[in-house]
TrEMBL record:
<protein>
    <recommendedName>
        <fullName>Transport permease protein</fullName>
    </recommendedName>
</protein>
<comment type="similarity">
    <text>Belongs to the ABC-2 integral membrane protein family.</text>
</comment>
<keyword id="KW-0812">Transmembrane</keyword>
<feature type="transmembrane region" description="Helical">
    <location>
        <begin position="176"/>
        <end position="196"/>
    </location>
</feature>
<dbReference type="InterPro" id="IPR013525">
    <property type="entry name" value="ABC2_TM"/>
</dbReference>
<dbReference type="GO" id="GO:0005886">
    <property type="term" value="C:plasma membrane"/>
</dbReference>
<dbReference type="Pfam" id="PF01061">
    <property type="entry name" value="ABC2_membrane"/>
</dbReference>
<dbReference type="InterPro" id="IPR047817">
    <property type="entry name" value="ABC2_TM_bact-type"/>
</dbReference>
<dbReference type="GO" id="GO:0015920">
    <property type="term" value="P:lipopolysaccharide transport"/>
</dbReference>
<feature type="transmembrane region" description="Helical">
    <location>
        <begin position="112"/>
        <end position="134"/>
    </location>
</feature>
<keyword id="KW-1133">Transmembrane helix</keyword>
<feature type="transmembrane region" description="Helical">
    <location>
        <begin position="236"/>
        <end position="261"/>
    </location>
</feature>
<feature type="transmembrane region" description="Helical">
    <location>
        <begin position="141"/>
        <end position="170"/>
    </location>
</feature>
<feature type="transmembrane region" description="Helical">
    <location>
        <begin position="34"/>
        <end position="56"/>
    </location>
</feature>
<keyword id="KW-0472">Membrane</keyword>
<keyword id="KW-0997">Cell inner membrane</keyword>
<feature type="transmembrane region" description="Helical">
    <location>
        <begin position="68"/>
        <end position="92"/>
    </location>
</feature>
Amino acid sequence: MKEKLKRLFDYRELLFNLIHKEVKVKYKNSFLGFVWSLITPLMMLVVFYVAFGIIFKLRAMGMQFYAFFLMSGILPWNFMATSLLLSVGSVVNSSDLVKKVYFPREVLPLSHLGSSSFHFILQELMLIVFLLAFRVPLTPWIFMVPVVMLLEVTFIAGLSMFLSALNVFYRDVQHFTEIIIMAWFWMTPVIYPIALIRDNFPAWAQRIYMLNPMAHIILLWQRITYNSPHNGTEAALLSVPGLLGTIALSITLLVLGYVTFTRLEGRFAEFI
């Protein structure tokens, strides 16, 4: 495994070039360019704000700045979902490259994660600018951005490599991933506060709900960008055992994903 990690490090320039290519190609011949990475989450914000903030009146639960609450969850969720959906088919979609050129195949899913990370950072910076513009006070939790970013990237990287490797042999994996992500969204406190689960479900159901690692990651992002003094001390509830479990799971997934990918990559050319 040490040799394979060294091999990946030796090909870091290729990884960076692929990330640059993904970012550049996405907005090639586009008039608005990178602005689209900001428009998409803003449109989602408008839709969910109207649906849940006005029609279903989630604002009536005492949530101030509900729009910022939405953004604090939508951005990291989109980061995860986009990265996975692009990564899972990355090896299959690069069949010519895989068959003809030698390089560490793991750079393919990781390049999509890298390009998605670039857009996510832009979006988070935009959110912070909006918070400052609307004079929403930030807390010291803002300095945890790099740590939480690293946690989410670790989680996504492991899952991306694992799923992209399996997708080479079982193409149903990509379709299955799309369906799971749709269901996963509603099982994660992205557009509704975690208090909704706490106040309306029995303890055993809450424990099952909080087995979702993305719930803890989203709650961390909400604590960073939404849990200001204006929103109260319970704007984003956190469970220390659950958080530690998410960290352990993310590291385990990273190792499992990398080991699975590198063990199977020798057979990729046969199946694509």
